[in-house]
Amino acid sequence: MSVRRGRGFGEWVETVGAWLLALIWVAPLAYAFWSAFHPPEYATHFRLLAPLTLDNFRIALSQAPFPRYFLNTFVLVTMTLTAQFVLCTLAGYAFARFEFFGRELAFALVLVQLMIMPEVLIVENYRTMSTLNLVDTIPGIALPYMASAFGIFLLRQAFKTVPKELEEAARVEGAGMLQILFRVYIPLARPVYLAYGLVSVSYHWNNFLWPLVITNSVETRPLTVGLAIFGAPESGVQWPIITAATLMSVAPLLLAFVLFQRQFVQSFMRAGIR
Amino acid sequence: MHRSLLVHVYGWLLLLPAAVLLIAFTHYPAIASLAQSFFSPKSALYPSQFVGLDNYATMAADPVFWKVLKNNVWFAVGTVPASIVIAITMALWVNGRIPGRGLVRMAYFTPTILPMIAVANIWLFFYSPDIGLIDQVLSNFGIRGHNWLGRPETVMGCLIVMTIWKEAGFFMIFYLAGLQAISPEFEEAATLEGAGRWHYFRRVVFPLLMPTTLFVLINAMINSFKLVDQLFILTKGGPDNASSLLLYYIYQVAFSFLDESYAATLTVVLLAILAVLAIGQYFLLEKHIHYQ
Amino acid sequence: MKHAVTRIISSMAAVLGLLFAAPAGAAGPIELNMYYPIAVGGPLTKLVDELVAGFEKENPGIKVNAIYAGNYDDARIKALAALKSGKPAQLSVLFSIDIYELIEQDAIVAFDDIVKTPEEKAWLKSFYPSLMANGTFKGKVYGIPFQRSTIVMYYNKDAFKEAGLDPNKPPSNWTELAEMGKKLVKHDAAGNVQRWGVMVPSTGYAYWMFQAFAMQNGQVLMNANGDKTYYDNPAVVQSLQYWYDLSHKYGVMPKGTIEWGTLRADFLDGKTAIMWHTTGNLTAVKDGAKFDFGVSMLPASKRRGSPTGGGNFYIFKKTTPEERVAAMKLIRYLTAPEQAAKWSIGTGYLATSPAAYETKTMKDYVAGFPYAIVARDQLPFSTAELSTFQTGRVRKLLDDAIQSVLTDKATPQAALKAAQDQADPLLRRYRSAK
Question: Does residue C69 sit at the A interface (CB-CB below 8 Å)?
Answer without folding.
Answer: yes
